[in-house]
Amino acid sequence: MTPTTPAAPVARQARAIRLGPRSVLSLALVSAVGVVSFTWPFLAPPASTLNAHTQDAPWLFAGLLVLLVAVVAATISESGLGAKAVAMLGVLAATGAALRPIGAGTAGIEPMFFLMVLSGRVLGPGFGFVLGSVTMFASALLTGGVGPWMPFQMLSMGWFTMGAGLLPGADRLRGGAERALLAGYGFLAAFAYGTAMNMAGWPFMDPDSTTIALDPDGSVAGNLARFVTYCLATSLGWDLGRAVVTVVLTLTLGPAVLRALRRATRRAAFETGVTFEDGGPVRRPT
């Protein structure tokens, strides 16, 4: 009788942190309020009283966004982030916050963005949203960039990182194809992030000092043309630099960083509980 060769052990896959229904609902709520907070100049009619309080609007929206982001973080933490995941969140957020000042004053050299893309890819959209928000909060404290714009940065970076976790093929796609997907996403998302932050600041320019500021009495089409001109004139070079740096770092450092993140995720075994029996600790799926 021919002996049977034992099958080789199957490598355990790194699992993203799953979201519960309450976390999904909270993310949807904060995203909906965030979209309104960014796009209100195009939603409010010219006669709206909101246009008479444009200088107060950033503080009102900032306060609301801080509360909503806190609710989302608390909900996700309660449903999916254990002590090991929180420890990894702290390490990655601290790393991202430390990377951000490297490009201060130099157009587009912002290496933190590629780390956010890879982290969101490995650890999932919920973890990614919290990571992006916490990283931007920590970096604002580190660099002294605290102001009414900070919650908008937190929300935009949360979306940026969450989007990487929503990309297809998380369990199957590997190698060059995955890096190309992440690089393409990082390129487009870098422009989306810059556009969102332009939207947060553009409405509060003095319309008497420039012809590309928001016109409270203008049409939606007219103000949209002004906004596009503003983006092209003020931030296109910075956004392009951010996009190119993200692509280059993703393609060059991506393989090593992805392996490290997946190895850490498997070792942390976020979804595996530990119980103690007579023979010692035993890991069981939760």
What's the SSE blueprint?
Layout: H1 21-43, H2 57-80, H3 83-99, H4 112-123, H5 125-143, H6 150-165, H7 175-201, H8 220-234, H9 236-268, E1 272-277, E2 280-285
Antiparallel strand pairs: 1-2
Helix pairs in contact: 1-2, 2-5, 2-6, 3-4, 3-5, 4-5, 4-6, 4-7, 4-9, 5-6, 6-7, 7-9
List keywords for this structure.
two-stranded antiparallel sheet
Distance between the termini: 41 Å
The radius of gyration computed from the alpha-carbon positions, rounded to a whole number of angstroms, is 22 Å
Please tally the helical runs, counting DSSP H or I stretches of 4 or more residues. 9
Low-confidence stretches: 6-11, 273-277
Strand residues, percent:
under 5%
Overall average pLDDT: 77
Q: What's the helical proportion of residues?
A: 55-70%
Sheet with most strands: strand arrangement: 1-2
DSSP strand tally: 2
**Shape call:** globular
Structure description:
65% of the residues lie in helices and 4% in strands. By secondary structure, the chain is mainly alpha-helical. Strand 1 and strand 2 (280-285) form a beta hairpin. The two termini are 41 Å apart. Mean pLDDT is 77; it is low at 6-11 and 273-277.
